[in-house]
Structure formats: C-alpha cells, structure tokens
Specification:
Blueprint (H helix, E strand, L loop, with lengths): L10 H21 L3 E8 L2 E12 L2 E2 L6 E2 L4 H14 L29 H5 L27 H15 L3 H13 L20 E2 L2 E2 L15 E2 L1 H13 L5 H7 L4 E2 L16 E4 L4 E5 L2 E10 L2 E8 L4 E7 L5 H4 L10 H11 L2
Antiparallel strand pairs: 1-2, 1-13, 2-3, 4-7, 5-6, 8-9, 9-10, 10-11, 11-12, 12-13
Helix pairs in contact: 2-4, 2-5, 2-7
C-alpha cells in the first residue's frame, strides 16, 4: 500500500502554520526567493503541508508545485539501489567493474576497488564532477569526497547490470510502492503548469530537465511526495534488517568539516556519511539529512527515525537557504539538531 500523507493541518500544524504564515513571506522577500514549500512530520505523520510565494511570475506556489530536488535526488537513487540489494538483485560490496568501467579510467586498476558501498558513502575517490575527463583524486575507500560522479558511476553499474534505466528501477522499487505519483527523473507531460521556475542572479531562468535520467540531480517532485519518501526512510520500508543498519551507520567520517571549533558545544558526537544520507549522532539519536543546491534551487530534508520527526523544504532559488535559516526556531525542531543548525548558520 502507498504511504499516505495528510494535507490538512493537525492542531500542532495549525500553530506552526500561524507562525510560519507570519514569518515566511518576509523571509522570502528579504532573501529574494520566489517561493518555499514545506511538509513537517511528527511521530511519522504530517502535521503541516504548505506553500508560499510564486512558482513563476504571477503564478502562486501550491502544494502541487513541482521542484527540482537538486541533490535530494541522491537519497532516492541510493534507496533504490539498497532496496535492490535487499532483494538480492545487487550486492553492497560487489565489484562494479564486473558490469561497468568508465572509458576514461579503463586502464586504471583502481576501478576494481569500486563498490556500491563506496559510491553511496562518497568514498570513490572521484571529484564532485569531472573536468572534461574522469580521474581519481585519491584511492577508493581511503577518504571521503562528496561526489556526484560517484553516484552516476553507481547508476551506470546498476543500469548495465540489469539492462534497465535508473528511472525505471526507481519507479519499480521506490516510487510506485510509496505512491510517489508526482516524482520523475525525466521531463513528463504532466509537468505542464506545475514547475517552480528557478531563480538566480535576480531573474528567472530556464528549468533544467533531463531526457536521459541522472541519479544525482534534476529529479522533480513535490514536498508531499518527498515526505512519503521520508516516512519510508524512517521506517526502513523495503530494506532488509542488515542493509537498514548499514544505511544508518556512519561509513566515513567528515573529519570535522561539519563541526567548526567555534560551535563545538552544539556539535553532534559523530557525523559523516552513511549510505545515501549524511548522518549526525546526538547520543542515541541519529539524524539523517541531505541538502540540494543548484543554480536556482535549494532543498533541504532531514528525518529522525527514533522520534518520527522529519521536515522537507523546497525553494526555487539558489540562495534559498537564506530564507530557511530565519525559520529554524519557528519550525519547533528537535532541540539538539536545531541548536547545531543555528550554530552552523552563524559561521
């Protein structure tokens, strides 16, 4: 059965809506951000689904407005792969070279070290994006380096292994089971009239849409659909017990990059990347988080499986974070995570 998401505010949601209605329009104007759309979950259930501003000139944003997720696409793609691994279709530590080797590095023996685990935890050794030609920056598995190339390498492996495109795999293993009917990896006819037009350098720009799917970027969805995904992420739906544990285990530390000395008092005990998610450990509580930021888009999502709290926010401006930061207190977030985010924002 698809995961349900309620649109009608709960009692708590009404209080949140009242605070946000008073604050969001001003935050959008101050940051020069056209629109913001949000879903807030408590105990695994939505308490507020809301949108403010304009999706394009003169067109109000609604809860049906489609946003480019930017890098929030990566957790969906990773969960697709992890679901396939849970069903025995792929292996977490399989040698990807058995099904795919990028021609740029075909003569490099380090290709034989690459695995799905290293791709999803950003340990491939690839740069974020290639500069003309793909090359290793460090030996796979020896360091952390956030990499869209690593995710696309994983996608190429899965596609060559199965003979199916990543959008088809995502549909079969994640989108359809969760009832995510407003999510797509490639441009669709039903996008018409629903797309949040990206805003950059003071003007609206052409939306980036793919004919051939990417695994790391340019997936379009609504916050409501992404909230369904967050519900499933918190419950571990579709994942085996062992794979779920691996997803939520820090696979590689960030070497302090997410904890500047000036905010040490509010930092998590440990942080780093799991499989598809950035993880922050506050005692026994783990926060799963990811952001997305491209020209004309900023997106943010987090989930806390132990409490069922989650938030997804989507904007159509690259500087969207500037509109989100002033809202942190009004969102009534987990106090440990809230204090940490405010500390980061102060730097």
């Amino acid at each position: 059965m698809p995961v349900p998401v309620l649109a009608k505010p709960t009692h708590e949601g009404q209080a949140l809506a009242s605070r946000l209605d008073a604050q969001v329009p001003g935050a959008l104007r101050a940051a020069n951000v056209p629109s913001l759309s949000i879903v807030i979950l408590r105990k695994g259930r939505p308490v507020l689904t809301r949108a403010w501003g304009e999706q394009s000139p003169g067109v109000p944003a609604t809860t049906r407005t489609l946003y480019n997720t930017a890098s929030l696409a990566k957790p969906i793609t990773a969960t697709t792969i992890l679901t396939m691994i849970s069903k025995g279709k792929l292996g977490l530590d399989d040698r990807m070279a058995d099904a795919w080797v990028d021609p740029d590095i075909a003569n490099d023996p380090r290709t034989r070290l690459l695995t799905p685990r290293l791709s999803m935890s950003h340990q491939t050794g690839f740069p974020n994006w290639r500069d003309g030609k793909l090359a290793f920056k460090f030996d796979p598995g020896t360091n952390y380096g956030y990499s869209g190339e690593g995710i696309e390498y994983l996608v190429a492996y899965a596609q060559n292994k199965t003979g199916k495109r990543i959008d088809v795999l995502a549909r079969d293993y994640v989108l359809k089971p969760l009832g995510m009917k407003s999510t797509a990896y490639t441009e669709q006819p039903w996008f018409a009239g629903r797309v949040a037009q990206p805003f950059a350098d003071g003007k609206y720009i052409k939306p980036s849409m793919q004919k051939t799917p990417l695994g790391s970027d340019d997936v379009y969805t609504t916050p409501t659909d992404y909230a369904r995904f967050l519900q499933a992420a918190m419950s571990g739906r579709g994942l085996s017990k062992d794979i779920l544990a691996e997803q939520r285990r820090i696979q590689t530390g960030d070497k302090g990059t997410q904890c500047p000395p000036a905010i040490k008092a509010t930092c998590p005990a440990r942080s780093g990347f799991g499989l598809g998610w950035q993880l922050f450990e506050f005692g026994a509580k783990t926060v799963m988080m990811h952001t997305g930021n491209d020209e004309g888009e900023f997106t943010f999502a987090y989930a806390i499986p132990s409490t069922g709290e989650a938030v997804v926010i989507m904007t159509n401006a690259g500087q969207g974070a500037k509109a989100v930061i002033p809202l942190i207190d009004s969102l009534n977030m987990d106090p440990d995570f809230s204090a940490y985010l405010k500390g980061l924002a102060s730097q």
